């Protein structure tokens, strides 16, 4: 605007006031008119640039924009009521908050897909100082008269989710998997902050205590504490178990049955290294023969755990099986091919083995969080399938490969 105030009126000499006989040395003679035309052109162009700048400012003002504190990853904020047009709720709007998008980059760096936390406002460029569109599903209603309503990020399988609740240790629709170690940090939970709706209830004012102010770059806080999950088996792969978390709901009285509620999210658990079907060969010292025995393994699909062991046709392999094969439980048969070596008993040649006890549908197992399992599954990414390492590994169970078809049986 200072430019407009400093503009001066341009006076161009009129042709009828000048003579064609004027000397070219006179500044206002006809041959010097190009200077005036050039000055007018520059002035008009400058005015156009200022008009375009004003237009950009008006567009910016018409877009909901944050004033004061800047946006940053995981910022807990409120969508201004003045911008609401279709989701107006004058009684509850003051207790509604949203959480700015953010990424967890501890396992895999994919800020546009797998590293992005689900449940945030989804803004790709989190430092962009604009509100998202008015979408009611982004609002999280903080309960009345609550001094600490928590927000945190949870890793579940290969995804990250925004969770909220007054007590993170209690399961709910907003927290399907309890943070059992809270308030102790662990490797799969990261606190974002909490909101106080009690202190300013009389004036309808929320107070926010913000902890996370940037993308998460390290697991846990301080020393990493291993977490343990109790899971039900749904599918067995070569090197992994697909499982589901569950929790129990007691009845109203001690005589009522306990209701078991299963979660909808898959949790992939790596098998113990010795139980994996990716092992092609290995050398083991045999204490009986006193020599190193070279083992080469091949694998074949077997039936699931719901089988009748007496239904196998003996002594042949694989024989016949009357059990169900439709549940997706694959307890693989391994054939141990032992080459002819000095001192190796013949009975060790081509031994057929299976993990025992077998994994069965809805069996309960326990899994522990680990830094690396070296087992990967492939998940859909923006540019195609990408590998995701599993960070849970089965513990306990006392399972081992066992000979199931002895020679001569």
How would you portray this structure in words?
- The protein has 409 residues and is mostly beta strands.
- The protein folds into 3 domains: 2-62; 76-210, no CATH class; 270-403, no CATH class.
- The protein has helices at residues 2-5, 33-62; strands at residues 76-77, 96-99, 140-141, 149-156, 159-165, 189-200, 205-210, 228-236, 240-249, 259-270, 281-286, 291-300, 333-338, 351-356, 364-369, 376-381, 384-389, 392-395, 400-403.
- It has a 5-stranded antiparallel sheet, with no helix packed on it.
- The N and C termini lie far apart (98 Å).
Quick description:
This protein is mainly beta and 409 residues long. The chain has helices at residues 2-5, 33-62; strands at 76-77, 96-99, 140-141, 149-156, 159-165, 189-200, 205-210, 228-236, 240-249, 259-270, 281-286, 291-300, 333-338, 351-356, 364-369, 376-381, 384-389, 392-395, 400-403. The protein has three domains: 2-62; 76-210, no CATH class; 270-403, no CATH class.
Features of the shown structure:
elongated; 5-stranded antiparallel beta sheet; 2 helices; 409 residues; mainly beta
Give the helix/strand layout.
Layout: H1 2-5, H2 33-62, E1 76-77, E2 96-99, E3 140-141, E4 149-156, E5 159-165, E6 189-200, E7 205-210, E8 228-236, E9 240-249, E10 259-270, E11 281-286, E12 291-300, E13 333-338, E14 351-356, E15 364-369, E16 376-381, E17 384-389, E18 392-395, E19 400-403
Antiparallel strand pairs: 1-2, 2-3, 4-5, 4-6, 6-7, 8-9, 8-15, 9-10, 11-12, 12-13, 13-14, 14-19, 15-18, 16-17
